[in-house]
Amino acid sequence: MSEVTFKVFRYDPAKDGGKHYQTYKVPLRRGMTVLQGLLYIKERLDPTLAIRFSCRMATCGSCGMMINGLPRLACYTLIEDLKKRTVVVEPLRNYPVIRDLVADFSEFFEKHRWVKPYLIRIDTYTQEKSNTSYLQSDEELERYVQFAYCIKCGLCNAACPVVASDKEFLGPQALAQLYRYLADSRDEGTAERLKSVADGHKLLRCHFAGSCSKVCPKGVDPALAIQLLRREILLRA
Amino acid sequence: MREKNIMLLHYITGILILVAGGIHLSTVFLLSPYEESMKFDSSPFSVMSVYRNVLLAGSLEALLILVAFHGFNGLRVILQELHQGRTYKKAVSLTVTVVALALVIYGTRTILIAHQLANL
Amino acid sequence: MPFRYGLERWSYTLQRVSGVAITLFFVAHIVETGNVVGGASVWSIPPYELAKKVWTETEAFLANPLFDMGLSVLGFLIFFHAFNGIRLVLAHFGIILKKPSRPEYPYRPGSMSPAQRALFWVSILLAVAALVYALNVFFEVLRL
After folding, report:
1. Scanning A158, B34, B70, B107, which has the fewest C-beta atoms within 10 Å of its C-beta?
2. Chain A residues within 8 A of C99 when measuring between CB atoms
3. Domain boundaries, position C33
4. This prediction's pTM
């Protein structure tokens, strides 16, 4: 049975604020994920390690981190697949770090809230009080359902080169959700959604680098959503 | 101007540059051998011959304006992405516009003078 | 350094680098051609012989193989930027991308469509062709 070396980023603002990497040796079992390695470290070697995780099955979006230089979900990444004897684990790029591997997602959720991720109807009474259901055909569903699979893990924002330098850019996650509600046939807020991103850096600073779609663990393809959204803005609003 | 209109212009100028740039590159490299194009006046596509022709000089002028807009708008986008802030944004837009305008004026002067010189 | 994010990230980087390089060349080119009819202080028609003299001097200055090499690389950058730009316009309007569909494992994003990637390689090919053509014009590498 072999071993793998974990190089983990450590940072504790409460103690001394120093950023350094700490090495641990973790015994390797077949099919072991990076999350299992980190939990082994936390249980047997160093209980002060701070990590975020929950479902262990790539559906909650909590365990996003930079693993060997790319943003991945720790529970979804097999150590064998990395094909290296050393696993370098760092907190997600482009997010402020709270402690060790835990990133601050408050700005992320603010941007998500800004795009109004809910159905906007002109007649709010029917939406809130009545018993009717909105009919939607299969074709209408196919137009947006791919983008509804987002688990808000934040890997796309970590990969995006524009999010790294531009604070006003909304980021692939928020923009993909904007398009998800725009393309939903039940939504009636088209004009205001389009107007909100037609000016400024919010949408138009995307340059189709496609890194977001490359790292998305659920196949949401935010790059596609953003280009389709851009098409709507440029041709309509 | 709203950012979406600026972006539309960026795409349109890009496509038009394909045409005007194609003409410019053809006159220098394709329609006549490079040594002949580099002569001052003694061959059909030499420097002065191109300026003499109203259509070719006009296409050069168009290329000047289109490339100035497209290139400096590109620089503005890159610079404004690297740092945000109201004064910085205004300063970048102003500088980029002034430099682009200065280049267009200077280039137009060159084309007009060269055209008149060639037709003396 | 972002090396493993895929083709589209490389295209974004090259497009930006080539754009900045071309703009800087553009500035130098306008200044250099403006010099031939007399520089920034001249706003009326100069004598013909002066223009011819400045042109001959500029040509002698530019006959350097370093500048020829630079122009060839610039040819590569211009052709790449132009054809990649066409690909970007088509992609930005969603024309060469696949339609949204339900994600099936292994997820193949519709934005990374074969059509769009093929156009990237076409741009690289045309840019290399332009580089070889320019090298041939300046250095006669092909002896065609």
Report:
1. B34
2. 142
3. 7-139
4. 0.91
